[in-house]
Specification:
Helix content is about 70%, strand content about 0%. The protein has about 220 residues and is mainly alpha-helical.
């Protein structure tokens, strides 16, 4: 008779594979009922995107790691207050943005920017991707991914924190103006004006950093 193997390990792997097929919302509901592994699955599922978002927002890897931990601690503390009719990912990123904002405020780098520019067109249908395609210069095709990533981070670092925050939230979540307004709890017109201003600000800094890179290569 052959060896029975490790049925408990097989069952654990099957359970993990099963969780990979479950929605974020159902996983979080399982966590609220006491399934600790469900939260681990959620952390693994969103780790890369959330860390990149926080690193872009804060410009510091150690700070991003700290805020990442604080975000999931807040997720744990607020578990009972999560509205199960809403999506988990926007809630997660909104908490992360709030934690990042707190970090920047404590560091004395928070800059408020009041925007009152009128917004035209359809506020509900356009997404951040649409704006980027229209307003932001295309990156140099000769740049490799690492170089491009460094230039994007350099351009973002020159933006005001408020503009950088909303730009990154919209980029990572691919939300419409209406969805961003709902998730952040701000008026639709404010979302539209801030996103337009953020795209224009990024475009200006992107042009500057790519110009500096080209000049450096010629030297």
């Amino acid at each position: 008779m052959g060896k029975a193997g490790n049925p408990s390990g097989v069952n654990a792997r099957k359970a993990h594979m099963g969780k990979d097929q479950i929605s974020d919302e159902r996983l979080f509901e399982r966590y609220r009922r006491g399934d600790e592994e469900a939260l681990r699955t959620l952390i693994d599922r969103h780790r890369d995107d959330l860390f990149r978002f926080l690193y872009r927002l804060l410009g510091d890897r150690a700070a991003a790691e700290d805020v990442f931990q604080d975000t999931f601690l807040q997720i744990h503390l607020s578990a009972d207050r999560f509205d199960v009719t809403r999506r988990f990912r926007p809630w997660l990123f909104t908490i992360a943005a709030n934690k990042g904002r707190d970090y920047l405020r404590k560091k004395g780098r928070r800059q408020e920017l009041e925007l009152s520019a009128p917004a035209g067109g359809d506020p509900g249908g356009a997404s951040f991707v649409d704006l980027m395609e229209i307003d932001v210069p295309a990156p140099d095709a000769g740049l490799d991914r690492e170089e491009l990533d460094a230039l994007v981070q350099k351009a973002l670092a020159r933006m005001t924190p408020l503009m950088r925050e909303i730009l990154l939230l919209a980029y990572f979540q691919r939300l419409s103006y209406a969805q961003v307004a709902e998730d952040l709890g701000i008026p639709l017109g404010t979302v539209k004006s801030r996103l337009h201003a953020a795209v224009a600000q990024f475009a200006k800094h992107w042009k500057a950093v790519t110009g500096e890179a080209e000049a450096s290569q010629r030297e």
